[in-house]
Amino acid sequence: MRALAICLALLPAAAQGESLVALRTMPAGTVIGPGDVGISAENHPGAVATAAAAVGQEARVALYAGRPVLAQNIGPPAIVDRNQMVMLVYQRGPLTIVADGRALGRGAAGDMVRVMNLGSRNTVSGVILPDGTIHVATTALAQP
Fold it and tell me: pLDDT at residue 84 above 70?
């Protein structure tokens, strides 16, 4: 038993990782800046490891000072807000239909969002493009 204890004592300590922690409390929707996060010597499972991975991202939930910044709690900043006026675009072959809409949710580029077509009052779903327009993949815009 004593030999086992000596062997364990001589083994190198388990490698300690670094984790990113919030330096101030940030409400959901805040875009993270370089002064908002710092490195902690403790390893927290699921936490972001570098500041470069978090800076420029948006907090999806409230981040509290001194707590680790988890990868699941941050994401790309939203470019479409709820109730924002947006342009709906439907394309199929040479046909392109453009309509005005009102976003019923918020999201970043690539997110699916529900939108109300202001001309027909129909609700459709589409993918947010990087320029803020919504690409509709159904024929819902063509319905009377």
Answer: yes
